[in-house]
Design goal:
With about 500 residues, the protein is an alpha+beta fold. Helix content is about 35%, strand content about 20%. The chain has three domains: about 10-50 and about 155-230 and about 310-360, 3-Layer(bba) Sandwich (FAD/NAD(P)-binding domain), CATH 3.50.50; about 100-140 and about 390-475, no CATH class; about 240-310, no CATH class. The chain has helices at about 15-30, 55-60, 65-75, 110-120, 130-135, 155-170, 285-295, 340-355, 360-390, 395-405, 410-420, 435-440, 460-475, 480-494, and strands spanning about 10, 35-40, 75-80, 80-85, 95, 150-155, 175, 180-185, 190-195, 200-205, 205-210, 225-230, 240-245, 255-260, 260-270, 270-280, 305-310, 315, 320, 325, 330.
């Protein structure tokens, strides 16, 4: 316990993580705080995380950011899901969409009705009963009443950081240019006291937010928090990123294309396309990865290839003493399901809910870390699922993934879905309908469906499935093209 009242908050590092923290804290609590963000123009940011999930819509609304203004500033496009190509097997694909598939009942999920219909030959593809999936395939988008269409964004991360800087400075955040030369701690308890910059200036604070990326200058280099590797389950440890000119209208979904020893992303923005390949260096060299990426991009390249090394895992504590890790300083999960910005947001919002105004209490720190670890572990399991449940055996990498042992928590989910068709979700989990979408998409089919489904007659089941599909088709038919909607949004922002 530390009874120091929190009045001065120092954010170490900028980029997406730093400026998201600055924006949220200044907007929601800035009247009572002195907030300084320290960053150096000499230190670059990775800045390749351009795909998000629907929780970012909540974050923007929390900060009262106008969506049309935001989309213009970040050259954004809308995202309805992720298309996974070659993941189940070469030449096969599916879309993990943000919406709910079909209609559940009190005892079982829609997948049970769909499975019986599949046995009877009256069900179409599982994704045909999901509005977001069908809209993505049709390349359509619109805002619907009552949040009727779940969506997220593709954004230019560097433009987003610039936008949030202006936003934060309006609420009193002070930006300090400089490199951190030394982190000073208190002798009596090891808490961080101040940062000494390379020009000799000292920045004092009561609480420090580490947004220094994978270096973890505060959380690790100073506080020696420790790191838990998950590379035994997530073997990819490298990436190459590049930007290209857009050669077609932007589509409302991210593409994830499985390659021999990893996967390639393709993210459409208004002005360009973000591309990259995530791979395992045990099976593919950096030269091979770069060559594979360049052979599979469209349009003129705008940047030189950026090579990135990482280790999948987490910091043992997200909050340690008077320091909170946000972004890459807190750990790394590959962006397969676009959760990087979500995890930044989660730590920020969770911190604001538990803000230690009158001093830091260990009980609250422990609860924060417990909740953060739960988030990380459930997302970790969901990402591992894509590698483990596959029919691919064509390369050593995919044979390794298919045969590797996985966490007990994930193994249980796989087995219970295979045995019963059930997906049981903790109320605090991020992903819900996503589990059955990905398991079915990857080729994991349950052995049986719930007996309750047999209480429906063939006529009732046929009408039930047809009604859902008809509603989805009717709504999709009425939506405008994604590119047309973006154009109308841009005009409204002028």
């Amino acid at each position: 316990m530390d009874n120091t009242a929190i009045r001065k908050v120092v954010i170490a590092g900028g980029g997406t993580a730093g400026w998201m923290a600055a924006a949220a804290i200044s907007k929601l609590m800035g009247k009572n705080l002195d907030i300084t963000l320290v960053e150096s123009e000499m230190i670059g940011t990775i800045g390749v995380g351009e795909a998000t999930i629907p929780t970012m819509v909540f974050f923007n609304r929390l900060l009262n950011i106008p969506e049309a203004e935001f989309m213009s500033a970040v050259q954004g496009t809308y995202k309805l899901g992720i298309k996974f190509e070659n993941w189940k097997d070469i030449g096969e694909d599916y879309i993990h969409a943000f919406g709910v598939t079909g209609k559940d009942c009190w005892a079982c999920g829609f997948q049970h009705f769909w499975m019986r219909g599949r046995e009877l030959g009256i069900s179409s593809d599982f994704g045909d009963y999901c509005l977001e999936r069908r809209a993505a395939e049709a390349e359509k988008f619109s805002h619907l009443p009552n949040n009727g269409l779940n969506y997220a964004f593709h954004i230019d991360a560097s433009l987003y950081a610039k936008y949030l800087r202006k936003f934060s400075e309006k609420f009193g955040v002070k930006r300090q240019e400089g490199k951190i030369a030394k982190v000073n701690t208190k002798a009596e308890n090891g808490y961080i006291e101040s940062l000494t910059l390379d020009n000799g200036e000292v920045i004092e604070g009561d609480f420090f937010i580490d947004c220094t990326g994978m270096r973890g200058v505060l959380i690790e280099q100073t506080l020696h928090t420790g790191y838990e590797s998950w590379s035994q389950w997530l073997p990819c440890d490298s990436a190459v990123a590049i930007q290209t000119k857009a050669v077609a209208e932007p589509i409302p979904y991210t593409r994830s294309i499985a390659r021999d020893s990893g996967w390639q992303w393709r993210i459409p923005l208004q002005h360009r396309v973000g591309n990259g390949i995530v791979y395992c260096s045990r099976y593919m060299s950096s030269e091979q990865a770069q060559e594979t990426l360049l052979e599979n991009v469209e349009g003129e390249t705008l940047t030189d290839p950026l090579h990135i090394k990482f280790s999948a895992g987490r910091r043992l504590k997200q909050w340690n003493k008077n320091c909170l890790a946000v972004g890459l300083s807190s750990g790394f999960l590959e962006p397969l399901e676009s959760t990087s910005i979500h995890l930044i947001q989660q730590n920020i919002v969770r911190f604001l809910r538990m803000f230690p105004t009158t001093g830091i209490r260990q009980t609250e720190v422990d609860e924060f870390n417990k909740q953060a670890n739960f988030d990380l572990e459930t997302i970790r399991d969901f990402i591992i699922l894509h590698y483990k449940v596959t029919d691919r055996t064509d390369t050593e990498f995919w044979r390794h993934c298919r045969n590797m042992e996985v966490p007990d928590s994930l193994q249980h989910r796989i087995e219970i879905f295979k045995d019963t068709g059930h997906v049981f979700r903790n109320a605090a989990e991020l992903f819900d309908d996503s589990w059955q979408q990905v398991m079915i998409g990857q080729g994991l089919m349950p052995d049986r469906y719930h007996a309750l489904v047999d209480t429906m007659s063939l006529k009732e089941l046929t009408e039930f499935l047809a009604h859902i599909k008809s509603n989805v088709d009717g709504t999709v038919n009425g939506l405008p093209k994604h590119s047309d909607y973006l154009a109308s949004l841009a005009n409204s922002a002028k």
